[in-house]
Structure formats: structure tokens, C-alpha cells
């Protein structure tokens, strides 16, 4: 503990406020996670990583930095992790899911900004995030208006490199995106002093595909009834995928999947087989945003999937591994990332198709669409998602909320009423 404090102090964090945050989080985690019944043995890994998310993992980053490696912090699944890895750098997610610092953030961004944006700005301003402080390069992207304007403001307090993500899936958009992937590759090479070779990039692609395959395996296993893992734990797996070392993470999640397979064989689950099965869809839930899954799973339902960037949107597509030249691999990476069906794209029919087929694959009885307050892209699409699901006879409930706990009772009432109709 005391060595962690020294490390945090060196990172110029606000120790007192940070201790307070860890205490609140510890209690929150106990209530939401440790209280679950019939949890998997593999959840020990999740508990450990989460308990050391600001401790041992930051220590690992610091040790790697001492050996000359660089850390790249990101806010969006569009930043190609394969390239970061190929330059021997470490790729971490910086999105935050807690309200701490949000009031400070309102000095830099308008009040009617979504909670996810306010949270990462607030964490920086309140000196609460050891990942931001450990990052040698912070990468933003032109996705929603809220984010792209926020990075201009954020750049004043933390220099931010911005990738231009196109808004359509046209050929011209794909050309722009490929040029952005190349520009990112150059920037990472400059940062690290490492020249990315075909061999290194091939390895990066292999490692990140491995991580995605493990997550895909988890998704498939959740089609089983009774549900073998809670939605809370599955969300945590996805959240941790943005922080932990990818090779270690992949091994641990494959072990967890072995345990799930054994459970499924014996018909064991986290809830009785007749428990209504819900899929979540919409905005990403950054750690420690566990509010909605907790409310849903305390309302007589079990969550069987997350159609979100901290969920299947980040694991569904792999990079083609057949390319042997650097050029072919860059093309494969550009193509894979252009498949991301973020609501920032127009039109975005793929997302509707992906949601309906995922809901069917997971045998979901209903879908809860989740938009953060003030998130235009996902709020708009919630209406289209509702219509697309209606055609398939799958009921949907649309929820708009933020990170505050004030509406928990109200959410519970609405979700219970929805679950009763299933
Ligand atoms: S690829 S979903 S990670 S942009 S919730 S900040 S959209 S106002 S997060 Fe995202 Fe990349 Fe898309 Fe995925 Fe804006 Fe909405 Fe806030 Fe959002």
C-alpha cells in the first residue's frame, strides 16, 4: 500500500481524494460483485485485477516505462491496438465511468455533455487517474461532436493526438481511414523509436485477435441456458480487457471459458433457467460504471450480452491474418476497423442487423437500450433499434441515464415492469 502511495505521489495524483475514491469503489464493488451467489472460480482473476487496477497494473506500466517502453492511452475502439503493440508500446483505455471530478470538468466542457466525457476530463482535473498520468501519448478521435470538441479542450491540459475517424462507410471514407492508420503508425514509431516491421505487426495482429477470440468464445457460451455467468461479471471481463496485459488476459479468459463449459455441461448457472434473459445495447460502460447491470440483475433478470464497445462491438471482427507484407496488413487493419458499427456513422444499418442477430443468437427475451444523457448518436439510434427489434418480435426498453445514483429506484421500477411483461 505505502509503495503504491509513493508511486501515486510521483504521478502527481491527489492522494487524499484518490484514497477517498478507492474507498467508495471498494464498497461499491463489494455490494455489486462480491455479494453474487454461485460465482465462477475464474472471477478471482477479475477481483484481483480490479483491486489492483490503480496499484500493481500501474506498477507494471511504470516498470515497463523504466525499461524504455511507452504507454498509449485511448478513448475509442477505433485506435488500432495491433499497431501500438507492434511498436512494443502498451495500449490502455482511458474512458472513465464514475462521477468524480465531473463538476471540475464543467469548467472545460458544457454541462450538457455526456457523463463519459465529463468523467475522463474530471479524472484528469481532479488528479485521480494514474493511467492518464502514465500515458506518453493520449489519442482522441473525431467520433461524436461531444468528444471531438472535448479533445480540443482536453488538449490544453493533456496533449492529445486526434485520429480522424470518417462518418460514412464510402470508399473515400475508407481511403481517409487508411491514411489515418498510416499516420498513427508513424506517430507511434516516432514516440517509441521502434520501426514497425511486417514481422512485428503480424505478431501484434495475432495477439489482439487472440484476445478477441477469447471474448468471442465467452459471448458464444452465454447463449447457454441457464446463463453460466452474470452480466456483471461479463461486463467486468470486457472492462478489464482495456487495462490488463493482452496475453495474460487472453489466457485467463480462456480458463474462465473452460470453467463455463464445464458448468454448461452440468446444467449449472448463475440464475434459474426460467429467468428472463436480457441483452444490453448502446453506449459503452466504462469501469466502474456497473449501475445498470446491477439494477437489471436485481430486478429478476439476467444479462446475456452487451452490444457495445465495451462488449461485442470490440470483439466481433478479427483482422485478416493472411497478409504477409506490411501493406497487406495495414489494409487488413483498415478494413477490420471500418466494420465498427458505432452510432457516429451515417447511415448505420449494420448496427441494426448486428443487434437483431446477436439478440437471436443469445436467445434474449428482450433488449435494454442504454444511452447516456446528452448522447445524440445513441439516443437517435435507440428509436431505430426499437423498430428493428419489433420486426423480430423482441421487446425493447429504452433507458437514458448518467453516472449518478439518484435514479436507481426509478430505473428499478421501470425495469421490473419491463421484465414482468417478458
Ligand atoms: S466507436 S461508441 S468508443 S465513439 S456516450 S462520448 S458517443 S456522447 S463513446 Fe464510443 Fe468509439 Fe463510437 Fe465506440 Fe459521444 Fe455518446 Fe458520450 Fe460516447
Please provide a written account of the structure.
With 422 residues, this protein is α/β, with parallel strands linked by helices. It has one domain (2-421). It is 54% helix and 10% strand. The chain has 18 helices and 8 strands. The chain has a 4-stranded parallel β-sheet with strand order 2-1-3-4, with helices on both faces. Strands 6-5-7-8 form a 4-stranded parallel β-sheet, with helices on both faces. β1 (71-74), α5 and β2 (90-93) form a beta-alpha-beta unit. α7 packs parallel to α9, α10 (171-192) crosses α15 (326-338) and α16 crosses α17. The longest helix has 24 residues, at 198-221. It starts with a helix and ends with a helix. Double cubane cluster binds next to α7, α9 and α17.
Quick summary:
The protein has 18 helices and eight strands. With 422 residues, the chain is α/β, with parallel strands linked by helices.
**Could you list the spans in which at least 5 consecutive residues all have pLDDT below 50?**
none
Query: How many E-type strands?
Result: 8
Percent of residues in β-strands: 5-15%
Give the bound compounds: Double cubane cluster
Helix content: 40-55%
Strand order of the largest sheet: 2-1-3-4
Q: Structural class per helix/strand content?
A: alpha/beta
Give the topology string: H per helix, E per strand. HHHHEHEHHHEHEHHHHEHEHHEHEH
Structural domain tally: 1
What profile does the largest beta sheet have? 4 strands, parallel
User: Helix count, per DSSP?
Assistant: 18
CA radius of gyration is 21 Å
Amino acid at each position: 500500500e505505502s509503495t503504491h502511495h509513493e508511486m501515486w505521489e510521483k504521478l502527481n495524483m491527489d492522494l487524499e481524494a484518490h484514497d477517498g475514491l478507492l474507498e467508495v469503489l471498494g464498497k461499491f464493488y463489494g455490494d455489486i460483485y462480491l455479494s453474487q451467489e454461485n460465482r465462477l472460480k475464474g472471477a478471482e482473476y477479475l477481483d484481483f485485477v480490479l483491486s489492483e487496477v490503480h496499484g500493481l497494473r500501474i506498477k507494471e506500466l511504470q516498470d515497463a516505462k523504466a525499461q524504455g517502453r511507452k504507454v498509449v492511452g485511448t478513448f475509442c475502439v477505433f485506435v488500432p491496438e495491433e499497431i501500438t503493440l507492434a511498436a512494443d508500446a502498451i495500449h490502455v483505455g482511458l474512458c472513465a465511468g464514475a462521477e468524480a471530478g465531473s463538476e471540475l470538468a464543467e469548467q472545460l466542457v458544457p454541462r450538457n455533455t455526456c457523463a463519459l466525457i465529463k468523467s475522463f476530463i474530471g479524472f484528469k482535473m481532479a488528479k485521480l487517474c494514474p493511467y492518464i498520468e502514465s500515458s506518453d501519448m493520449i489519442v482522441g478521435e473525431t467520433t461524436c461532436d461531444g468528444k471531438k470538441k472535448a479533445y480540443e479542450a482536453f488538449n490544453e491540459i493533456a496533449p492529445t493526438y486526434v485520429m480522424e475517424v470518417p462518418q460514412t462507410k464510402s470508399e473515400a471514407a475508407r481511403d481517409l481511414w487508411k491514411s489515418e492508420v498510416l499516420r498513427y503508425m508513424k506517430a507511434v514509431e516516432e514516440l517509441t523509436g521502434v520501426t514497425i516491421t511486417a514481422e512485428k505487426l503480424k505478431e501484434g495482429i495475432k495477439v489482439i485477435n487472440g484476445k478477441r477470440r477469447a471474448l468471442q468464445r465467452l459471448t458464444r457460451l452465454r447463449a447457454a441456458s441457464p446463463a453460466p455467468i452474470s452480466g456483471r461479471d461479463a461486463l467486468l471481463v470486457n472492462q478489464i480487457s482495456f487495462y490488463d496485459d493482452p496475453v495474460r488476459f487472453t489466457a485467463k479468459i480462456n480458463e474462465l471459458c473452460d470453467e463455463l463449459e464445464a458448468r454448461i455441461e452440468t446444467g449449472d448457472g448463475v440464475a434459474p433457467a426460467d429467468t428472463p434473459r436480457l441483452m444490453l445495447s448502446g453506449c459503452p460502460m466504462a469501469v466502474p460504471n456497473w449501475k445498470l447491470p446491477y439494477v437489471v440483475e436485481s430486478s429478476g433478470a439476467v444479462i446475456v450480452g452487451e452490444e457495445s464497445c465495451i462488449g461485442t462491438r470490440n470483439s466481433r471482427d478479427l483482422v485478416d491474418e493472411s497478409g504477409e507484407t506490411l501493406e497487406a496488413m495495414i489494409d487488413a487493419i483498415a478494413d477490420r476497423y471500418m466494420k465498427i458499427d458505432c452510432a457516429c456513422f451515417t447511415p448505420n444499418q449494420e448496427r441494426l442487423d448486428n443487434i437483431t442477430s446477436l439478440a437471436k443468437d443469445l436467445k434474449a427475451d428482450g433488449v435494454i437500450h442504454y444511452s447516456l444523457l446528452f448522447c445524440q448518436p445513441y439516443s437517435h439510434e435507440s428509436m431505430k433499434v426499437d423498430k428493428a427489434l419489433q420486426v423480430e418480435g423482441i421487446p425493447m426498453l429504452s433507458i437514458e441515464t448518467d453516472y449518478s445514483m439518484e435514479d436507481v429506484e426509478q430505473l428499478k421500477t421501470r425495469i421490473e415492469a419491463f421484465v414482468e411483461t417478458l
